[in-house]
Amino acid sequence: MKVVGINGSPHPRGNTAxxxxxxxxxxxxxxxxxxxxxLAGKAIAPCDGCFACRRGACHIQDDMTPLYxxxxxxxxxxxxxxxxxxxxxxxxxxxxDRTVVFRTAGRFELSGKVGAGIACGGFRNGGQELTLQxxxxxxxxxDMFAIADGPRFSHSGAAIAGSTRxxxxxxxxxxNLARRMAQALRQLAAR
Length: 191
Known about the structure:
Elements: E1 2-7, H1 15-29, E2 33-38, H2 65-72, E3 76-82, H3 90-98, E4 114-121, H4 128-141, E5 145-146, E6 158-161, H5 168-189
Parallel strand pairs: 1-2, 1-3, 3-4, 4-5, 4-6
Helix pairs in contact: 1-5
């Protein structure tokens, strides 16, 4: 089993990267293979709505191209984004839009994979829940299973407030989320 984590922050070693890194560490302790990808500095053009993907592939050749096979080969996907104006970062949104290729022409190539979100905001009520809901909408549109961090906090996913390293509650939600993802992957594999 493999989980891919996508860091949608323009800061490759910032709060979002730290939260995602912690989630991937927890998954590795659970026996799950992981790979992290930072979108910082990548040249990923926005979807231009040309619908070339209906014929099987996106016509845009850029830094998104090698990510397609990585996503096809994973069993779980964690999206991690800072909160920008109450939603995911622009980098994350462009990434999400470009994966429309997985669901065109009746294909749903990510169907059945497990998705989870991490949102990092400046304050405890800094837009994390809406950002996570945006990620859940994405997972559902890709016909993926969307999971949350579960009890004891039961957010829509992991929510960091302020500095990742100093947010004990937020780190607890990240750990819960990663453990629940490992559990979901094991349950699906046992089917």
